Amino acid sequence: MKILVCMKQVPGSTKVDIDPETGAMKRPTGDVRTNPYDLFALETALRLREKLGGTVTVLTMGPPQAESMMRDAYTMGADEAVILSDRKFAGSDVLATSYTLSQGIQVLGGADLIICGRQTTDGDTAQVGPAIAEHLTIPHAAWVSAIEDADETAIRVRQDLASVSQVSELPYPCLITVDKDICVPRLPSYLLKRATAERPVRFLGFDDLPDRDLSRYGLVGSPTAVERMFAPPETETQVYLDGDAEGKADALFAILTGKKVI
To answer: Which residues of the chain carry a pLDDT beneath 70?
Structure first.
């Protein structure tokens, strides 16, 4: 069983810098972390490997600094880590990002099962996973909350959708996106950290991809664009109420009605 997990490094806090000229978010250089949903995807992959055997490869598209995230994946049990990194990928929207990742997956020889987190905390589109599957023309299931069963030929999953919950069975190769309720990610292992300290992280660039049509990548290959992005002004202030419980309740009621909250 060849399992591949797509991951992303995202800002570690809500404090982000916006380029005043382009309106784009400046990619963080310091306070970053692994996208939380991707940790559930990795844990799901590791549990399936324990059941079915095989390997777990983690793949990301991002700057070279994403190597720290890849090494964290090694300490959780991943077998191989690959970073798609090239200036030509900069400015990618969902379409260009998913196409680049699908190209990288082809370079790696494909996968029986591709697992993505439900969404990222910086983009929140929840579209990259299904878009990868469409580029690869393989079946996919989103919003997966549980793995009902899996064997060497197919996987059966439970999807919690907007108004219904359903069980779907997908033959390999296929892709699923998992929600945070599917499992509890394991903690990094110090022993694995020592054992994988010298394990290389593989880098792939634009010239390594089978399709080198520049119109499919980066800003040029992105049909959608953010017109403007800005950080809202910080206007929130703390209000301390004095007095007994009844007096505080009356004061709070006056504040909320004054702001027309109630």
So the answer is: 13-30, 229-232, 236
